[in-house]
Amino acid sequence: MSRWIKAAAIGLLVAISVQFMTGFAADCGEIRNKVLRLHILANSDTQEDQDLKLAVRDRILEESGTLFNCLDSKEAAEQSVDENLEQIEEIAADEIERQGYDYPVKAERVRMFFDTRVYETFTLPAGQYDAVRVTIGKAEGHNWWCVLYPMLCLPAAQPQEELEQNFTESQADMIENAEDYQVEFATVEIIEKIKNWFAS
After folding, report:
1. What pTM did the predictor assign?
2. Of 25, 104, 113, 198, which sits 20 to 30 A from 56 (CA to CA)?
3. Residue pLDDT, tens place only, 73-119
4. 8 A C-beta contact, residue 8 and residue 102
């Protein structure tokens, strides 16, 4: 039975992919390849652990500006991350201790799946992204995410300027005006979830 389900899923994926391979889906693929995300997982969903997650977030964002400011490519951002993962981890560990906890923390650069995500004034399509993942304790709580490159969530960020410099006009329009592309975003999410299902 599962073989037929997989065959049907493949057929659906192919049919939808053919329709969307150019245009919107192609732009989504380029957006994913241009972005480096930050992903922070809380120890649990208790209010205390969620508050701690946000405190760690604030410290990382506050002290990461010098690591990502004035970088002119995603590759440069990834290199900066690789050279400073230990520092990012130390920043998080220091804030955890300052808040009175003794949870272990780990920072790593990964490639992982994200659903379509809305962050204040912009939206990113579903799919596989490169990300800096910070896990606190058991990492069983709700997560928080933003974009390290281009600088769309750091304190020194100028989102409009970053969008114009790093994305084409059509890509920037998609990111800023997701309400105009609800069907397209939903369709791409279906495609990417099917891809991720097979990959996993």
Report:
1. 0.83
2. 113
3. 899 989 999 999 999 999 999 999 999 999 999 999 999 999 999 88
4. no
